Amino acid sequence: MTSSNIHVTLQQLEKLKYQARYFSFTEQQPVNSVLSGKNSSRLRGRGLNFEELRHYRPGDDIRTLDWKVTQRTGKAHVKVFTEEKERNTYLAIDQRSSMFFGSKGKMKSVIAAEVSALIAWQITGSGDRVGAFIFNDSMVKAIPAKRGNLHVSQLLHQLSKINNELNTGNTDAGQFDSLNNMLKKLTALNQHNALIILVSDGYGWDPRTTRYVKTLRQHNEVIACHVSDPLEQDLPRMPQMIVSDGKWQIQFSSQNPTTQRRFRENLQRQLDQYRNFTNKYRIPLIPINTLEDPVQQLRRALGRVY
């Protein structure tokens, strides 16, 4: 692996600004996008704000009639709405030690950073505000939603800084708690009509995670970018394999059929829990792997490949 595959640089993330094209997160989606179709949640767009109540005028849409006021006053009244011009987007970016893994291509943490950078550049380019909740094993860095290229550069600076703190010896036993800690802080914002994009491997998903995401989903759109590495789905067969979490290590034979079966069952159980939840609550799931170019993966998932 090259150094850029192990840790990201700010320059690496800023260059992605010029490739953040041919995909979007608006309600207008190509037919083969994961954000369209009956099996996924359609984005609501930017939303409408109530402005005033006034008398009916010829040409007004009768669907905007306020029947209660009309009945009470005896005169037709309509509700007037204005389009909300801006929408907040929050990236929940996973930089835990479980993301510091990659078999042939890039580390999952690097791919997550690049995907997040592409989305951030696309969002700010469309005129919306973008913020982030970057979390690792022990902390959550909250960045408020703002507009502009300078703000995105500052966001990516924090992301690259946290990414470069990852190494093979800093595993925290509480890494899975940080997923829920991040979601707790995100939920506390009490956002409405925001777009929330989770870029994570989904490890540590539990009933608390489900409750937090359900709460967020009630008033916002949620999209999940699931980052995975092919080796996670196929345990190599070795007579002696040593596995370490940075503090402890064990040695075992991965050629054992029982070990192989338990590994696949455990992984499949976690993936099924994640996918079943996103399907049940109509949360679009974008699969991201560590081998392919994240630019092409996003364009393919959102229906536009150039």
How would you describe this protein?
The chain is an alpha/beta fold and 306 residues long. 36% of the residues lie in helices and 21% in strands. It has 9 helices and 10 strands. The strands form 3 sheets. The chain has a 6-stranded mixed β-sheet, sandwiched between helices. It has a two-stranded antiparallel ribbon with strand order 1-2. It is elongated.
DSSP, total strands: 10
N-end to C-end Cα span: 27 Å
Number of domains: 2
Helix-strand topology string: HHEHEEHEEHHEHEEEHEH
**Please, what is the CATH homologous superfamily of the largest domain?**
von Willebrand factor, type A domain
Largest sheet data: 6 strands, mixed
Q: Biggest sheet, strands in spatial order?
A: 5-4-3-6-7-10
What is the CATH first-level class name of the largest domain?
Answer: Alpha Beta
DSSP helix count?
9
Radius of gyration: 22 Å
Q: What is the approximate shape?
A: elongated
As for the CATH topology of the largest domain, it is: Rossmann fold
Strand content: 15-25%
Helix content: 25-40%
Q: Return the average pLDDT rounded to an integer.
A: 85
Structural class: alpha/beta
Low-confidence stretches: none
If classified by CATH, what would the architecture of the largest domain be?
3-Layer(aba) Sandwich
